[in-house]
Amino acid sequence: MTRYVVGRIVQAAVVLWAAFTLTFAILYLLPSNPMQLQLAAAGIEQDSLTPDQFAAMQHKFGLDQSIWEQYWQHLSGVLHGDFGDSLSQQVPVLDLIGQRIGSTLLLSVSAAVVSLLAGSALAYLATFVRWNPLRLVLTRLPALGASFPQFFIALFLIQFLSFQLGWFPATGTEGVVSLVMPVATIAVVTSSVLAQVLIKSFDETLSQPYIITARAKGLSRTAVHLRHAFRNAALPAMTILGVIVGLTVTSSIVVETVFTREGVGKLAQEAVLSQDVPVVLAVVTLAATVFVTVNLVVDLLYPLLDPRISHVRAKVTAPEVVPA
Amino acid sequence: MTAVLTETDPILTPAEETRTRHGGRLGTLARKPGFLLASLYVLFVISVAFRPGLFSSQDPYGTHPESSMQPPSGAHLFGTDVYGRDLWSRVLHGSPLTIKATLIALAIALIAGLGLGIVSGFFGGLTDGFLMRVIDVLLAIPGLLLALSIVTALGYGTIPVAVAVGVGIVPGFARTTRAEVLRVKTLPYVEAARAGGASWGRVLLRHILPNSWGPVAVLAVLDAGVAIIAIASLSFLGFGAAPPAAEWGTLIADGRNYLVTSWWLSLLPGVFVALLVLSLNHIAKTFQELGR
Lengths: 324, 292
What we know:
Chain A is mainly α. Chain A has helices spanning 2-29, 34-42, 51-61, 67-79, 93-128, 132-145, 150-164, 177-206, 209-216, 221-238, 241-258, 264-273, 277-305. The two termini of chain B are 14 Å apart. Chain A: It holds the Pfam family BPD_transp_1.
C-alpha cells in the first residue's frame, strides 16, 4: 500500500515536471525571435535601443544565456516559489496571481460543486423517470449542453437575465449576485459532461443482478435507485472528477473575460494578448498542478471507496474530455 | 469517448443481421430525420466554406452607414452591424477561415494521433510505455491552456490557432488508435495473415489499419465539433485572424459591445456555430450507435 502511494506521488511529480518542461519548450524554443517577443511585451521599440541598451535588456531577460541555463534558472525558481517578473507590468508574477487567485478559486469551486449537484440530479432523473418522452429529453439534454460554446452561453445569459430581466449584474466581481451567471455558464458544460458519464454508468448498474434481487425482495424503486444503484453508479464517475475540475479551471479564462471578472483566467487572456511569457508559463504550470493533484487524490481514494480494485490495478485513466 | 475505447466486437442478433443485409446501412440512416437534418446542415456549412458567395449576394466588407444596426429582416437575414455590413454575409464569409482552421487542426491530430497510436499499439513494450507517458504529460496540461501557450509562442492568426487546437486533441486520437490496434492485433485473422506468410508491415497496412479505423473516424467527427468550439473560443478571446476578416469567434466578440441594443450581432452567429457543433455531435453519436 505505502509503496503504491509513494509510487503514485512520484509519478505525479514526474508528470508535472514534464508538463512544465514542455510548456517552457513551447514558450522559449518556438518563437523565432524571443528577444523581439519580450521587448514587445515590455512595450519597448527594438529600434530605439542602442546596441549597449539592447545587450542590457537581453541580460535582464536572461536571453543572453544558453537555453539550458535559462531552463535551469526557471525550474529552480519555480521550485523556490519564484516565477520571475511580469514583462508588461514589472511586478513579480506570483503577486499578480496572488491578487486574483481568490476570485478564481471561488468561481471554480462553486462551479464544480454546482456541476456535481446538477449533473448527478440530471442523471438520476433521466434514469428514474419511466415516461418515455421525458426520459428521452432528459438523456439527450447533456449532449445539447456540451455542444454550446461557453462564450455563447455567457452572452445569452447576459442578454436575458441581465439586460432583459435585470436580475443579475452583467459584469464585475462584487458580491454573490455577480457569481451566479459565471457559475451557471461553467456548470452548463461541466454538468453535461458529468451527466453523460453518470447516465451510462447508471444504465450499466441498473442491469446488474443485485438490482433485480433488491427489487425482487420487495424494495421500492426509489430505495433501490437511491441506496443500491446510485453509490455504485457514482464510482466510475469519480474518475472524471479531475476532468471536471480541469474544465472549470480552463473555463474561467473565457468566463472571466466575458463577465470582466478580475481573476487568473482574465490574467491569462491578457498575458497572451501582451505576449507576457513568464505569466503564461506560471498560469499553465499552476493549472497543471491543480489538475494533476486532483487526479492523484482521486487515484489514491479510489481503492478505498471500491475495495474490489487492488492497488496494483488501481490506475484509472480518465476519459479525455474536450477542452471547451 | 469511453464508449469508443471499450467497444467490443459487434454481436448481431438475427433480426439485426437481416436488417443490415437487406436494408443496408444507408437505409437505416435515411430513416433518422435528425441525422439527415444534421448532415444537411454540415454539408451546407462546408459548401459555404468553399464558396461563401453561393448563399449570399451581399458584400461582407461593404459599409453602408445609413443602414447600420438593423434588426434581422428579409433583406438582411442576420441584421446589420454598426458599419451597416450584412451580418449573414459576414458569417458566411467567416466560415472559410474557421472551417479551414478546423480541417488543419483535425489533420494534425489525425496524422500525429494515428502515427503515435499505431506505433504504440503495434510495437508495445518500452516504446508503448514511453509514448503513453508523453500522452499523459500532454493530458496534464488542460487543453485551452496548452493552446494559449502555443498561441503566445507562434503569434496570432488562423494557422497558429489551428496548430494549437490540433496539438490539444492529439492525445485522444493516439489513445483511441492504440486501443483499437491492441484489440485488432490479437484477432484470429491477423494470426492467419501472419501464418500465411505476410510480413508485419503488410499485416499492419492491410489488416490492422483498415479494421482499427472505425472508432477513430467517429472520434474525428466528434473532435471536429470540439475543435470548432476551441477555435471559436480562441478567436473570441482575440487571438484569431486580424480585422476586417472575421472568424465566427471574432464576430461574436465584436457584437458583445452592442449586446444591450442589438442582441442579434452576437447571438445569431453564436446560434450558427452551436447548431454546427450540435449537428456534428449528433452525426458522431448516430455512427457510434450504428457501429454497436
